[in-house]
User: What shape does this take?
Amino acid sequence: MRKWISGAFFIALLAGCSSNPQQSAPVEERVPSTATTPGSNAGAVTGGTTAPGVGGTTTGSAGSTNPLRDPSNILSKRSVLFEYDSFTVPDQYRGIVEAHARYLQGNRNTRITIQGNADKRGSREYNIALGQKRADAVRQLMRVLGVGDAQIETVSFGKEKPRNPGHDEAAWAENRRADIVYSGE
Amino acid sequence: MPRFLRLLIPLVLLAFAPLAVRAQLTIEIVGGAGTTVPISIVGFENESSWPLGITGIVGADLSRSGLFRLIDPSGIVPRPARAEDVRLGDFRARGADAVVVGSMTSLADGRVDVRFVLMDAVKQVQLAGMSYAVTPQQFRATAHKIADVIYEKLTGDPGVFSTRIAYIAKQGSRYQLHVADADGVNAQTIVTSNEPLLSPAWSPDGTRIAYVSLENRKPVIYIQSLNTGQRQVLANFKGSNSAPAWAPDGRRLAVTLTKDGGSQLFLINADGSGAARLMSSPSIDTEASFARDGQSLLFTSDRGGTPQIYRLTIATGAVERLTFDGSYNVSPRASPDGKGFVFVRRDGARFQLAIQDFATRQVQILTPGPLDESPSMSPNARMVLYAAEQGGRGILAAVSSDGRVKQRLVAPATDVREPAWGPLQH
Assistant: This one.
């Protein structure tokens, strides 16, 4: 322990001696057109991601009739928060999930992604799996309510995209979450 | 404390040697081995004719390993350059057990002949002698090769100074996959993304890196060729695709896919074809790591109620639980020497690295935490590179697999994480 601390003192010294990284010209991400897409992989990479919010906002003026965007409509609520180490949709969020399930049943061509998240503690890859489990829990409830799998994709960001970057229990609680995102949003 | 003072010497050398200035990552030794080999490295004949020398890099490599202590040869005149010039008594008198001398000579074609000999000052024998015809651009690589030879002769293990490391650097909202020499120098940007990158994994031949990117708003596994810069999709199935681990033959990878429900382990060919489920479980199975022989793999599973480490024998499908102590043991990485595995354990709120022996099941805690993660072993199994946090920022650190030697790799103003130690270069 003592040695770690004394070592830390020199880091500042050494860091000061270091110039900026000497890097080769940054290699930009390869556009997927150069990628060879294995035939068996369903859903190959599409060129770049759509900017969030570009789709779905065509009725964007105030007084929008899009129920997904109407702040007074329960469908505008998209997040399900989970207890620590829990993968059950808490009772207070069941109403939200049920509302989205009803909407999906009335709009069979509409697709959603449920994005699971985890708090920052622990292994990155294991947290991907934990986030996935939360997304899957929301999907399971929607299944029970009659929504078909074709309308839902569940994915996980693990701890990589925290909504609250803080280091306390309040932040962690906010990051143990699954978000419902409609296709095109 | 004499031990502390001893640490100061290499630190000061590192701080003022020109080689450290260009470093993306700066490495400091923060803890030493119990015993070190005292070695005297004499500046090579004519070395000062070139701006970048060789012996400074050799000495930095060796002292950074924590297993060597540099003995200053200045004052020994004339300065020996060949085995027959060395009066070993002069070096013994300074406490050196090993001596390195050498020379550098311009060749007609513009290359430089670099040659050295390593001598055992105690037994009074020559242990190694090599020569290289190289361009000045290859001096750094040549120095690492010389350090590898010296390390192997004096410790019995292959040196890893010529290997490379990969890691993720985050600056603001930009993520980059970097590849650098094992001493942090010559960092190259391989991939840049505005979305998180994680889990880089070297192919066994060191020509490709598999990694996970969230650029498509979900985890997708890519493989990037370091030679051509070409990228291919390894796995982009419905759901999440993550945790790539190369099989030792380099033809297949184990990955975690959720396409059939839950996080489950699959084998997939390196061209992305033939994804086949390894196991079927109602639990989380992820973080595969192949054993050296490719016959089994370690993985993390919560099938017992808490995340623990298991071993799957691929041919039989037999699964055996390996960790029992504590309620959170994750991120297993099989040791390249086949003897055990390194992993992350949680003790209360503290995440620490530990190493477990297959035969004895004995567990040794390697690091103090509090937020240590993503272990990756050096190809000679002597060091473990991992991610730690310091002042709210990610840094890389390394610890010897006996827990005695400790280093930090620090990049100014950059969050670094997800290190992966590349294979031996052949």
User: Anything to note?
Assistant: The radius of gyration of chain B is 23 Å. Helices of chain B lie at 2-16, 18-21, 55-64, 88-93, 139-155.
